[in-house]
Amino acid sequence: MTQFCPHPGSSAFSSLAVSPVVPKISPPPVPSSPPSFGGPVTLNVGGTLYSTTLETLTRFPDSMLGAMFRAGTPIPPNLSPQGGGHYFIDRDGKAFRHILNFLRLGRLDLPRGYGETALLRAEADFYQIQPLLDALQDLEASRGTPVPTAALLHADVDASPRLVHFSARRGPHHYELSSVQVDTFRANIFCTDPECLGAMRARFGVASEDRAEGGPHFRLEWAPCPAELPEVEYRRLGLQPLWTGGPGELREVVGTPGFLEEVLRVALEHGFRLDSVFPDPEDLLNSRSLRFVRH
Predict the structure, then answer these.
(1) Residue 47 and residue 59 in contact, taking contact as beta carbons nearer than 8 Å
(2) What structural domains and CATH numbers belong to the chain?
(3) pTM of the model
(4) Contact 180, 229 (CB under 8 A)
(5) d(Cα 36, Cα 29) in Å, to the nearest integer?
(6) Cα–Cα–Cα angle for 52, 106, 42, nearest 5°?
(7) What is the pLDDT of residues 31-78, one digit of tens each?
(8) Among 131, 103, 91, 67, which Cα is nearest to 11's?
(9) How far apart are CA 86 and CA 96, in angstroms?
(10) Which residues belong to any copy of the BTB domain (predicted)?
(11) Residues 6 or more apart whose Cβ sits within 8 Å of residue 111
């Protein structure tokens, strides 16, 4: 009969190929029938009871649990001190919940804000579950990336036509009164995520305080210059265009669709999803109001 011998001075196993080390473990009394594949197995891990199956415990055959509960592996028939029909393992019972879930699911699924990854890594090392150790390493490597928090984003835009009158010179002494319609756009962006709000300002080239407001929102007003309106008259009326994009790729925002398309791009880049469209959900880029949420 093969005997499990502890490795001096070590709480973990360096190899499972020859004689796997088994922690303090008390199997059921000899008269009870040994566990079978498909049937339930009860473990007492540090005083916490867990029920599972042999298929789950041996999901990773090279792990310590895989060696302990492998079919045909002899286990010393020590009686449980409580006399109950369960196997006792002297390890952290709370952390074993995540060990067992990983064996069941094959992936690491920790609650948000979990702060005991160091303990879980030590337990995974003890049980010699290498895939879990790899998953924990990936998790710790990604901890430097901030997790998006819940936020709200509103974008409202309104267009209003304005009839502009101006004198157009037709000859040396000939001036003619002309009129042209100028479409003026006013937009308000409200966002509770300062990083996204800053990206919105950068996207629309808002740098001066006369076009931006403090707090979680800012307003924009622009009017594309009609071809019939002389540039000097356009400037005299105090009108200004709206540009978007970075250096070398600046393009003018000439209407509601162009503005809302840029808002949509920035919102999606920051993890928001579209929640509502007003007034017509079927006409996204010609709407008056878009609402985004991020959970």
Answers:
(1) no
(2) 41-143 (3.30.710.10), 151-294 (no CATH)
(3) 0.49
(4) yes
(5) 15
(6) 10
(7) 344 555 556 888 889 889 999 988 999 999 999 888 888 766 655 443
(8) 91
(9) 15
(10) 39-144
(11) none
